[in-house]
Structures are given as C-alpha cells and as structure tokens.
C-alpha cells in the first residue's frame, strides 16, 4: 500500500467535496486507514489549517452498537472547525449531519504513550468544556470502518461552551447529561457511558497515537466521546445539551 498515493487521492476528492471514493473501498487495513488519515491531515496543515486536537469516537456502548464495531476510534480536530455555543449551522453546507454530545478536555501536560495510565491522564487535564460534535455521514461508516477512519471518522466540526477548570476531585464519570431537541427531552446519561469515565478516552487515545508517532501536547483539545448514540439533525433543529456540573452548549440548524 502506497500511503501517500492513497492520501493524495482522498485529499483531492475532499477538495471536490467527494468522500470515501469507491476505488478505495475494502483496500485499507486498520493501521493503513489511520495512516492515510494522518497523511491527509499533514496536507491540511500544509495548506494552512491548524490542528486543534483530536476526537475519540465509538466510546459508548450505544455508539458501538449503532455502528456495529467493537472498539473506539480517533480522528483529528482542526481550528477552523471549532465553533462556539449558540452557533447556527447551514444544512446546505453539511453532508447528512449528525450530532454527538460529549466533554471536550484540554490537555495541560504532555501525554506520550504507549504506557499512559489513568492517573497520568487525570493529572494532565487543565479544562473541561460542554461540547457537541458535528459529524457527517459521508458514507456507510460500519460497512468499511477503515475507509471511514481514512476520511477522519466523520468529523466536521466541534462546538464548545465556556471552559471550566478541571477539578480532579470530581470524577468525570459523574457528569450528568440532559439532551433536548427543540425543547423536548431526548436523552439522559452520565459520563459512565464513555468507557466508564471520559478520562479512559484520553488514556486510550494517548496510547493509540503513540503507534503513529504522536503524543497529546499541551493546549490540545480532546473530544472525549459521546454519552449517547449519534442523532441525525434536520433543518430547524435546536439542540441543547446540559452537562452538570460544567454547563450547557447549544447549536441550531437552518
């Protein structure tokens, strides 16, 4: 597998808003899918984008069941995709969008795998933000998971509210989510749904990234994984997620 050739092919397609091309279906191993993703990221950065951090996906049992997979996954976040709570997003600019509700964690101390522990991850977190991830269903995610990873695991944007200093005495597993669509309650969950504790996402991510020569650097944000399944959004939707004790985040679609 020529990773750079595959990455260039996907990169050129992305510029034309074409994703997960048929010619690459079934062609990547798990490691190759991630390697292509990271090679595309390098092209993004060379073109002027700035990396904001990473996302961890498929962290809840509900998400893994929905996508028919058995382990988490990762993708990269770009600064251009960082939006603030209250944002209005145009449906015409999105591809089959979905929304996920999660905590965004800011790294304060470098984490380098492959042997990062839970306690090290806990000491590394500086801030916590209530967050929503805007995902795009750009193809059949579960049918070719490796190609989905090459296409950055459905990532499009991430929305955060005001950052709160992280108090390690309060387990993130106790964070309580209340999710509403258009003023109607849709779901409740706690941080236990995210690999028993969102910090476990950070542990997994730091150790997984080490396989590809990356570490979690200070200042990077980590979207730590959805408390619930992914919800499709429609024109006119208002999404409101309350994460106690960290606050609320909202987004609307027109």
UniProtKB/TrEMBL annotation:
Region forming the signal peptide: none
Record SUPFAM superfamilies: FAH
Protein name as catalogued: 2-keto-4-pentenoate hydratase
Naturally occurring in which organism (per UniProt): Ottowia thiooxydans
């Amino acid at each position: 597998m020529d990773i750079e050739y595959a990455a260039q092919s996907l990169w050129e397609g992305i510029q034309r808003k074409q994703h997960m091309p048929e010619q690459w279906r079934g062609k990547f191993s798990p490691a190759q899918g991630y390697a292509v993703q990271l090679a595309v990221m390098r092209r993004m950065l060379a073109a002027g984008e700035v990396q904001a951090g990473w996302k961890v996906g498929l962290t809840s049992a509900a998400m893994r069941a929905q996508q028919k997979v058995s382990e988490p996954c990762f993708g990269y976040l770009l600064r251009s995709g960082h939006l603030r709570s209250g944002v209005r997003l145009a449906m015409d600019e999105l591809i089959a969008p979905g929304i996920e509700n999660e905590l965004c964690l800011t790294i304060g101390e470098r984490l380098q795998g492959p042997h990062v522990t839970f306690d090290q991850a806990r000491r590394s977190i500086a801030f916590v933000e209530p967050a929503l991830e805007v995902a795009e269903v750009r193809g059949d995610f579960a049918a070719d998971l490796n190609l989905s990873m090459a296409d950055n695991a459905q990532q499009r944007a991430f929305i955060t509210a005001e950052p709160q200093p992280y108090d390690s005495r309060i387990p993130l597993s106790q964070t309580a989510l209340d999710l509403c669509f258009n003023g109607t309650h849709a779901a409740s969950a706690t941080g236990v749904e995210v690999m028993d504790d969102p910090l476990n996402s950070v542990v997994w991510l730091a150790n997984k990234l080490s396989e590809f020569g990356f570490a979690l650097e200070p200042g990077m944000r980590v979207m730590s994984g959805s408390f619930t399944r992914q919800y499709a959004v429609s024109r006119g939707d208002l999404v409101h997620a309350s994460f106690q004790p960290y606050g609320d985040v909202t987004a609307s679609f027109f």
